[in-house]
Amino acid sequence: MLDVLADRKARATFMVVGRNALDHPDLIRREIAARHEVQNHSWSHVDLAFASKDDTRFEVRRGAEVVESLTRTRPRFFRPPRGDVSGATLAAAAREDAAVLMWSLQMHEATYDAEGNARYLLERVEPGAIVLAHDTGSADRLVGLRALPLLIDGLRDRGYELVTVSELVDAGR
Q1: Which of 20, 29, 51, 110 has the maximal Cβ count within 10 Å?
Q2: Higher pLDDT among residues 146 and 170, named by residue
Q3: How far apart are CA 23 and CA 158, in angstroms?
Q4: pLDDT, tens only, 92-127
Q5: CA 59/CA 50 separation, integer angstroms
Q6: pLDDT in tens, 52-80
Q7: Is the pTM value of this prediction over 0.70?
């Protein structure tokens, strides 16, 4: 994904799982060097809908600590795994001074149709959209990687600029 983004001179926000980031610090350094944004996606990607208040607080805090240790920047945003938001999630994110970040469009990674995925997103995108696409995982998630160049080119053809989430939020102020 980093290679595609570099080839297309596009920037993105990476929501990283803390323990994975610790296992791959060079990848995080590459993201930062390429001027991408790195934000918190929890410590271990547990389903926070079923986690205790203390476990939720730990997941958010430890994920934020890892992001800060690798990027030298405290994360502004927290994206809960699976998008599950509870009162405990909101409280834990607020305690870390992070806004809970969701998405407006998601890559349909369970299909193997990269062109169809890009077309689906391009037909629905609106100004300010946040598109969720996974960059790792099972083979079916690689459709996001194959669709990415088509999506970037299609967005630019429609006059969109690809920015990080922080840039998007700051532009709206």
Answers
A1: 51
A2: 170
A3: 38
A4: 999 999 999 999 999 876 667 889 889 999 999 999
A5: 12
A6: 999 999 999 999 999 999 999 999 999 99
A7: yes
* Environment class of 9 (CB within 10 Å of its CB; exposed 0-12, middle 13-18, buried 19+): exposed
Q: Rounded distance, CA 122 to CA 105, Å?
A: 10
How buried is 4 (Cβ within 10 angstroms: 0-12 exposed, 13-18 middle, 19+ buried)? middle
DSSP code for 84: -
Give the torsion through C-alpha atoms of 163, 22, 17, 106, to 10 deg: 40
State how far the Cα of 15 lies from the Cα of 113, in Å rounded to an integer. Answer: 24
For the domain covering 1-102, report its CATH number.
3.20.20.370
- List the structure tokens of 64: 């934020």
- As a whole number of angstroms, the distance between CA 131 and CA 12 comes to 10
Q: Where are the domains of the chain?
A: 1-102, 104-173
pLDDT tens, position by position, 9-28? 999 999 999 999 999 999 99
User: Rounded to whole angstroms, how far apart are CA atoms 144 and 65?
Assistant: 28
